[in-house]
Amino acid sequence: MSQNDSEARERHWEKTRSLMILVLALWFIFSIVIHWFAKDLNGMSFLGFPVGYYMAVQGSLIIFVILIFFLNWRQDAIDEEFGFAGDNEDDSGPQLGGDN
Amino acid sequence: MKGDFISNLPKIYGLYTGGFLIFILLMAILEQVGVSGETIGILFVLFTIFIYAAIGWLSRTMEVGAYYVAGRQVPPVFNGMATAADWMSGASFVALAGGIYFGGHGYLAFVVGWTGGYVLVAALMAPYLRKFGCYTVPDFIGTRYGGNLARFCAVLILVVASFTYVTAQINATGTIAARALQIPFEVGVWFGLLGILLCSMLGGMRAVTWTQVAQYIVLIIAYLVPVIWMSNKQGFGVIPHFSYGDAVMRIGELEAQLGVGTKATESFPGVRVLTTLHNAPGEGLSSWKFATLAICMMAGTASLPHILMRYFTTPSVRAARKSVAWSLFFIFLLYFTAPALATLTKLQIFDPNLATGIIGKAVADVQALDWIQKWSAVGMLAISDSNKDGILQINEFFMRPDIVVLATPEIAGLPFVISGLVAAGGMAAAMSTADGLLLAIANALSHDLYYKIIDPKADTRVRLIVARALLIIIGAAGAFVASLKLTGILGAVAWAFCFACSGLFFPLVLGVWWKRANRPGAIAGMVFGFAAGSLYLYYLRTGGAPILGIDHLRFGMIGMPVSLIAMVVVSLMTAEPDEETQAMVDEVRIPSGKTILSESH
Q: What would the mean pLDDT of B102-111 be, rounded to a whole number?
């Protein structure tokens, strides 16, 4: 492992970690914090739903789905930036050999 | 068809979906010409099981890579569907809407927890475990921390958590098979097991993957069609999901009028009256209970081996990540439908302005309804005019929560073909989860215990025969326990999550995210976390009072902190991991390059 390479690895991991922290912070807000205040939020209305209820049946769920797609999008960018995305041919192509 | 199997997948499953829709139409026609509802139910269940078994037969294999990880060539979208089917159990399909119907806002913590957990899977686990190239979850623990003891602890926790879960699933297949095929429950359990083994035994992970995709398609059609049909028939909107806010409000008004919350003055075994308000979140303790349940379910999601191992089957690290996103999307389709179903069904039963309303009507009229008679006959519903006023009150209508999904088509007066479809969907949900769980247990025992610990020289043929023999033994043990009817479906499911997160969550997460974590630390984390959680459960079951509202559904809240503290303290007290291990962790963090474990480890 050359000096450059290990430096790239370190910076790659730093960025990956920051992204993880950001994602988990958002996750914490929408899985825990928001529902803690469900009673107060129910005073407001969204699409005809009381907001506290809406977040538990749909809002948080939609945000979770988006959050993972967002995470993947950012992580791909990070991997590409440091040249670690290289040999990841996507969705297709069975891996050959090895099944002994 | 040209090209290989993988590139033809969309076409194959497109044809399959079309074929299934034609089958539904055919059943609808049979119903019109006078074939009995019972026959249609039997045809639905048998036909779908036959298809799954055929897929299982076609996917048979004698290759280790195909048996354990489906040859690592499952595209993300299809792996997403397979994970969704693996994930959504009989409990999600049959009991979730009923739970929301009876449990109100507090129960929605399950909905949030069982979806939010995938954010943890995507951010903390799946890509790294895929990079590792393991066959099973204990394989990761055993290699990252080294040593047979760590591996053995992981196997033990996996077996306890998954076995708790699988008995609940075999119980569900038994219940549905018993009802649809009109056989006794005890026979239904063994019949269900037979179907499950047909799917998984010959082809291992490869067979389970392709049957799970097929099962997802059946279960999602079976869940969405009745809800959307009912919604249109009753005038709740074309797609009810975004417009049932008014129904929630209306239920609030009706609850006050009908006096929801009044306790029943009589009781019947197995059924209960509705006493919880539909949308009444509390503060303080009830917020805490919501949060703790959600946390246990989320951390459990990210520790349950039958889910994690699905991400070992993708072609690359990036594909593993992508496939987590698709998994959650496919799961979301069912989970955001369940509350709509619970709300609309409740409104139909409550609202005196709707033809289907029964509360406040004359008891004699209600008792004459077809669906009331049918479900009363099997003891899943009861009506009793407790106050002798001849009018059905809210606290005189007893129901088993599980039947909300199964009875909805009948409450709304949909044709019987829909009930048959729902039975097939419930069967698919329970079978697919049971398959994944049985395979997780059998693979851990055959790969980690037998091959890695007991006989590292065993050749491929012997390994795969051992794996299959274990599958049958564990399946039979599960069916035997299920036939004893020890716990309800949902209790057992929540326990599985708590067992898994108590013992495995931190050793898995810190294995990737904390380089300093070492073998003694991981062993301490698994042993103390799992023991603390289990002892607390034992304390509760022997009559102990829940501390801080942490009851038997949330005992992971005790196990997890103990596991974390034990792991950190012991790791710091002992020597840091050697160079080689640290280099391995560095390598896991990079998505490109070779896997840590070779293909044929």
A: 88
